[in-house]
Design goal:
7-stranded mixed sheet, 4-stranded antiparallel sheet, globular
Length: about 120
């Protein structure tokens, strides 16, 4: 069973930056990305990267502040988060799958989820 392992979460002040990482145990996904879930809220799409063409996708709420990147050969992705806001506080989940373009931002588009890493933005 393929596993996704996240790392790099933590506490950061508003306006600060943080980078989180994820590595897959096998090179099997066509797309990898990130979702997040804040306390009492539904899980929401953050960003994803499709290896074929290295195309990236972002939620409007993070566009211009977050950047997803990755290395297909090592099955690793990264999320560079800048200008962080308290509203970015959430558990961030790494995901992998082969979603069609219309499902790229839906949880159903991904078959494998990591355990999550906590990101807290607070002064």
């Amino acid at each position: 069973q393929v596993q996704l392992v996240e790392s790099g979460g933590g506490l950061v002040q508003p306006g600060g930056s943080l980078r989180i990482s994820c590595v897959a145990s096998e090179n099997t996904f066509g797309t990898m990305g990130w979702f997040r879930q804040a306390p009492g809220a539904e899980r929401e799409f953050v960003a994803s990267i499709r290896w074929n063409g290295a195309r990236t996708y972002y939620a409007d709420s993070v566009k211009g502040r977050f950047a997803i990147s990755g290395d297909k050969l090592s099955s690793a992705i990264y999320l560079q988060m800048n200008s962080l806001k308290p509203s970015d506080t959430a558990v961030y989940y790494c995901v992998g799958g082969r979603p069609i373009t219309s499902a790229i931002a839906t949880a159903q588009g991904y078959t494998t989820w990591g355990q999550g890493t906590q990101v807290t933005v607070s002064s």
